[in-house]
TrEMBL record:
The keyword Coiled coil applies. Keywords: Coiled coil. Residues 48-196 form the Dynamin N-terminal domain. This is Dynamin family protein. Residues 312-339 form a coiled coil. Residues 90-112, 424-450 are annotated as: Disordered. Residues 90-104 have a biased composition (Polar residues). Pfam families: Dynamin_N (PF00350).
Amino acid sequence: MHNLNVIETALVELIDRAEAECAEAQRTDLGNRLRKIRSRVLDPAQLVLVVGEPEQGKSELINSLVNAPVCATGENVSTAVPTVVRHSSEPSAQLVEQETTQSAVGGDRLPVPVDQLHDELDRAVRNGRSVSRTEVGLPRALLENGLALMDTPAVGGAVSSLGAITEAAVAEADALLMVSDATQELTTNELNFLRRVTAMCPNIALVQPKADFVPDWRRIVELNRKHLANAGIAGKIFPVSSKIRARAMREKNQDLNAESGFPPLLDYLRKEMASAHEQLTRKLVAHNVTEAIDQITNSLREELNNQSPRTATETLLELEAAQRRAEDLKRLSGRWQKTLSDAVQELYSDIEYDFRERSWAVLHQANETLDEADPSTTWEDFEDWLKENLSEAVAETFGWLDRRRERITEQVSDELLREHVRTLPSSDPIPVPDPLQRVPDPKAPKNASFPRKDQILTGLRGSYGGVLMFGLVTKMAGLPLMNVVSISAGLVLGSKSLNEEKDSRLKRRQAEARTAVQRYVEHVVFQVNKEARDSIRHMHQTLHDHCNQITEQAQIRISRSIQDTKRMAEQDAVDRDARAREIKKKLEELNVLRKRASTLTSNRIAAA
């Protein structure tokens, strides 16, 4: 324990030194990150964040790890606030509110029954209470050594603020479990997220649930291992199945438990996480302190290189060049924004016309079919044909939309990046939706049956007029009312009436079928247009954010260049020499501090 306190003190002093350097360099962003790392060092718990995109099985994974339904799961259920699962002698749960000036440090806590945690959270949110997280305590051996699991809101979901909550919590974590199910390899968005968070928390493992649903999950795991290596991310991969794990726990079956893939993951959490708390903490501190020092050092070296004396003419030329770059950047920003806006507006118009044209072709062919066929006998086959052709039309429309997305990306990138290094935003192909699932099936036409008694009555009505008419004519010739001629005429007219009634009923059924198909196709068109417009909006936002980020970064560089030039112009030679000596001295101090940070990953701790 004494040695642990010495190590903890050395880490805190090192972080404090690095934070002071960040404050001196006016890098509040780096200082805030180090302050969160300092809090993690002083916290005896080992916080492991469980992160991932929506519907990947994060909550179900935590439930399987602790063998308890502590996190809400199910369709259309998403994590709105983080849930922290810790060790306690008895099951417990509480809601933790946002910290305010009137509340207690860390926020007010409201104990609730464990089995009513989700209902109480929903009630608190509906009542307008600002709940920052929920905490659950369980008597589990996995959590005895201080391990704490946090279920986090999904990253890359529809609500961007939830993803921001998760990324903000990364700086406070000792390690991350990235959850991405085994049905597909890691997406570009997931890899980009991992690249961002490894800058704050380098201790990462990838968990791939639903391995029982995918026969070739081993191939997916190998592909993901290559993706991580290519991205420079070090982390183990654990394919698991929460369904098999739950069944194994119910039946107390060790073979099923081994098949679920959870034992290696549990060993990893016990041995390489909870039991290696000190080493992981050292790695976390070393990574973040080293990165902060490197950023400050790079800025100081750049400033040192700019300390060479310059003439007034050189200064003026540099200011004019920087000003021209700023004006060019402003014009460039206007051009790419106009190009993007015009292309998106044109795409909105084209996509609606494209699918409506395809749906009209299907509808025209359907009407031609219904003009000849009897819907009462061919409806099921006709409905399958209609759905299949509409599905093909949807796929063709969204394939065309994805090609337009690529072309617009190229156009905007070319417009923006004429004077910059070419880089395209990372975006996944537009998926093909299935709007037919949300549209009720077309209703089959009514009155499809023509009962025998109705046919007899129809025939009698027609034959009665024939018998009466021809009977009266033949009666004038001296024949009785009922004779061969009148009866034959009645039979002919009765058969004609029956055929006309059958034909009339068929035409009514065909008209009803065409109306039902028309309504069905219009409903599908509405759903497809909504899906397409949503996809276009997402593409627009992604492109705009990417190009805007490049523009802002270029503007910041130009602004800093102007400020540095002005500052250097105001300094005389004596001031520049003095500043150069200060920078060199500071670089030496930072180098010593960096060496101390680099020793953290070894078995030595440098005393402050």
